[in-house]
From TrEMBL:
This is Helix-turn-helix transcriptional regulator. It comes from the Bacteria. SUPFAM superfamilies: Winged helix' DNA-binding domain (SSF46785). Signal peptide: none annotated. It comes from Carboxylicivirga mesophila. Gene3D superfamilies: Winged helix-like DNA-binding domain superfamily/Winged helix DNA-binding domain.
Length: 77
């Protein structure tokens, strides 16, 4: 259960940084999250599979989100 919660928190953090256009390069984002680049790419793949329209912009050196995708977990009360 803890691994699931950690992953969900990581997804939320990735999306928050993407919305701010503040991810930096994939290597910088992976370092910031204390994960490997390959794990970051897997997280991005999962978010895309769930409907997030994410792409990396080399000019801005940040990932961008092109739709209103949100992810939520926990109690919605």
């Amino acid at each position: 259960m803890m691994k699931f919660l950690t992953q969900m928190e990581r997804y939320e953090c990735i999306l928050k940084l993407i919305r701010r256009k503040a991810t930096g390069t994939p290597q910088e984002l992976a370092n910031r999250l204390d994960i490997s680049e390959s794990t970051l790419y897997e997280h991005i793949r999962v978010l895309k599979h769930c409907g997030a329209q994410i792409e990396y912009c080399p000019c801005r050196q940040s990932y961008l989100l092109h739709n209103d995708f949100t992810i939520a977990f926990g109690n919605s009360d």
